[in-house]
Amino acid sequence: MGTSTENASVEQQLLSFLEERTKTPWTPDRDLFADGGLSSLFAMELVVHLESTYDIMVAGPDLQLMNFRTVNAMVAMVDRLRQAAGE
Amino acid sequence: MNDREALVSELVGDRADTWDLTGLIPAEPLRKLGEAGLLCGELPEQYGGLGLSSLDNGRFTAHVGSLCSSLRSVMTSQGMAAWTIQRLGSAQQRADHLPRLTSGTLAAVGFSEPEAGSDLSAISTEIRPDGDDVVVDGRKVWVTAAHYAHLLVIFGRYGDGAAAVLVPADAPGVTVERVADPMGCRAAGHAGIRLDSVRLPRGHVLGGAGAALTMLVTAALSYGRMSVAWGCVGILRACLAAASRHAKSREQFGRPLAQHQLIGGHLADLLVAEQTATRVCEHASHRWDEGSPDMVTAAVLAKHVGATQAAAAAATAVQVLASAGASDGHVVARAYRDAKLMEIIEGSNELCRLMLAQHALSVSG
């Protein structure tokens, strides 16, 4: 697990990214696709953003909508993939 | 013209119309281009590829597209297969399979099925774990380059999710049957594929599988859309060149066609179309090379603009050449048929517009 400070930082960065891209404020637990109406195309944009920002690769079974459904889910995945890359 | 463009110009020569009429690209140009790494130019050097940027590969793709859309379609398939393995495969799978794509192996990617065209969520091909193996059952249609391919990348259902699996074209249970007389890109090797209880080692399933079908397909198709978009730029350049040459040389009413204002208007429209598609493709390639999240939407936009501009412009070019270009064996007649297919594959015009509309809503606040 990353430190709570690192995860809080990722959370804040993702909230800022989403707000900038969608011109809408977000909360960490808001469902982007159900409540937010974002498209699967936008989900792939999130994949590219996470990969380029956090130097991770989201591949294979991690390409699940549930991993991108909320900011909380994305923070958890980034943390997990960073840990795996560091091992 | 750089070395890459010179090589493909030499290999195609004046044979594109013959390939179109016979429905077949000979083995030698495919082998030479494949072994030179030019069928999937963006493949990183660590896997034996050229490691071209999206922009450089796009410009090369446009050059190939200006010569022969069937050959460009084979390139799109090879590049999309490489991208899919690179994007979804494990490190071991990338190391095992990607170098083959620049060593003579040709590949094709199967998405569409009899009941799943634009609605790929209706895919019914099943990839079923069975001990250390998987068993694949299903049917794919209109798989570009499948007639030439040694390796098939097949998308299907896998448990509650989806997966892509690598299927050797000569595996027991695989039947590849050419599409008879396709309207356009006639030599692109379009074929239907039947998969009857095809048993493969589980390691042929890319990336462990179980991902969301929409995300897998979007990831794979993004490359295909870029390639088709640049190919459309090539079609536009071929049409602009043919129409301009004809308008300068053909005289009617005592002067060259180009001096008739209505024909001049057509030439201007062709130039606008070619420049519009080129700039949108350059924008998308820049986004791709920067690793920007915009690249996904930019690829859809480029494909849609390229295809619609190419289809309209090819019709205009046939109009300018009239009877001189209205028979098989002429570049604008071929472009007219090829360009129409570009409005259907890799996301139809309608699907692209829906995706772009959804994107507009997503970022509208």
Automatic annotation (TrEMBL), chain A:
Domain of life according to the entry: Bacteria
InterPro entries: ACP-like_sf, PP-bd_ACP
A Pfam family annotated for this UniProt entry: PP-binding
Organism: Streptomyces malaysiensis
Stored SUPFAM superfamilies: ACP-like
Protein name: Carrier domain-containing protein
Ranges of residues in domain Carrier: 5-82
Automatic annotation (TrEMBL), chain B:
CDD domains linked: ACAD (cd00567)
GO biological process terms on file: butyrate catabolic process; fatty acid beta-oxidation using acyl-CoA dehydrogenase
Domain (Acyl-CoA oxidase/dehydrogenase middle) ranges: 108-198
GO MF, one example: flavin adenine dinucleotide binding
A Pfam family of this chain: Acyl-CoA_dh_M
Superkingdom per UniProt: Bacteria
Coiled coil: none
Cofactor dependence: FAD
Positions of the Acyl-CoA dehydrogenase/oxidase N-terminal domain: 7-104
Positions of the Acyl-CoA dehydrogenase/oxidase C-terminal domain: 217-360
Keywords: FAD, Flavoprotein, Oxidoreductase
SUPFAM superfamilies according to UniProt: Acyl-CoA dehydrogenase C-terminal domain-like (SSF47203), Acyl-CoA dehydrogenase NM domain-like (SSF56645)
Stated family: Belongs to the acyl-CoA dehydrogenase family.
Descriptive protein name: Acyl-CoA dehydrogenase family protein
Taxonomic lineage: Bacteria, Bacillati, Actinomycetota, Actinomycetes, Kitasatosporales
